[in-house]
Each structure stands twice: as C-alpha cells, then as structure tokens.
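Quick one, tokens below:
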C-alpha cells in the first residue's frame, strides 16, 4: 500500500501552482506599467498577469475531479519548464533590471520547484495506474 496517494499529491501541487499563479497574476495586473518599469520591462506587465490568471484557471479546471488527467498535468509541467528556461534567459541576458532579477529569479525558483513536484506526481500516478491495471489483468 502506498504511503502517499499520488493523485492527491499531484492535485495538491497543481493547486499550489494555481495559487502562486493567481497571486503573481494579481500583482502583475495591479502593478501594470509601474511594476513593469521597476522590473526593467519596456511595457506594462498587466497582459502577462492576465495570462497567468487564465493559466491558473486552467490548472484549477484540471484538478476539479478526483482522477487528475495526467496528460493535462504533463502539459502544465512542460509550460512551467518553458517559463523557467525563458525567464532564466531573460535574467542571464540582462533583459530586466536588478529588481527584475530578484522578482523573476524568486518566481523562477518557485515555478521550478512546483514543476519538479508536479513531474514527480505525474510519474508516481502513472506508475500506480499501470500497477493497478496489471493487477486487474492478472487477477
């Protein structure tokens, strides 16, 4: 018997991702051009915040049922990985201010941690499903 329910773990981590995305999105929408200028961006970051709010809504939709769709959760992991790589590129190529380095650096570390936990949850859940299917087929 598993100590940790993989689907419950995955659903919890996905919801944490949604919560962080909602918080970040609200800050970015509310801060808009002022926050964008402080972070060294040439324009308002409100549209980026709006995208994060939509992303969070999609994640919450994915977690609405007991059986999380593993393919959809995998897509969230890939999108988080794309965010991490792109943000690291922006930091490393000095496309943001020193304040932006901190803001995006912390956000990137949080997203990276969430992505690793989500990937672990997807893999654990997929393994549990295959073990269950094998047991049903043999017994």
């Amino acid at each position: 018997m598993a100590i940790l329910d993989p689907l419950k773990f995955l659903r919890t981590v996905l919801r944490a991702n949604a919560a962080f995305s909602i918080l970040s999105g609200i800050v970015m929408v509310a801060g808009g051009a002022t926050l964008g200028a402080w972070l060294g961006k040439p324009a308002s970051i409100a549209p980026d915040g709006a995208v994060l709010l939509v992303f969070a809504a999609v994640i919450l939709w994915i977690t609405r049922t007991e059986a999380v769709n593993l393919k959809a959760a995998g897509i969230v992991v890939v999108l988080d990985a794309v965010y991490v790589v792109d943000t690291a590129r922006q930091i490393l190529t000095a496309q943001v201010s020193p304040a932006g380095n901190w803001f995006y650096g912390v956000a990137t570390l949080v997203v990276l941690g969430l992505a690793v936990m989500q990937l672990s949850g997807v893999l654990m859940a997929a393994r549990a499903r295959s073990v269950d299917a094998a047991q049903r087929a043999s017994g």
